């Protein structure tokens, strides 16, 4: 089992089923936006979400990577 599966949950009663950090209502998407904006893991924890761990942030990234690597891509030939 992948490590993030204990850290990331999908519950239809929390944020309409969007993936969240387990034990919180913090969507993975929110964490990924902060990482995208170049905010360090320690600053995310200190300034935005003090109740999460650095491992939770890493789990969000691992979750996103797993989604991308398992995604099927269909390319149409350009005529």
TrEMBL record:
Signal peptide: none annotated. It holds the Pfam family DUF433. This is Antitoxin. It comes from the Bacteria. PANTHER family: SSL5025 PROTEIN, SSR2962 PROTEIN. InterPro entries: DUF433, Homeodomain-like_sf, WH-like_DNA-bd_sf.
């Amino acid at each position: 089992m992948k490590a993030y599966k204990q850290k990331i949950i999908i519950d239809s009663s929390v944020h309409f089923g969007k993936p969240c950090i387990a034990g919180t209502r913090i969507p993975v998407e929110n964490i990924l936006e902060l990482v995208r904006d170049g905010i360090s893991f320690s600053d995310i924890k200190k300034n935005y979400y003090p109740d999460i761990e650095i491992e939770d942030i890493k789990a969000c990234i691992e979750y996103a990577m797993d989604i991308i690597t398992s995604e099927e891509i269909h390319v149409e030939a350009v005529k």
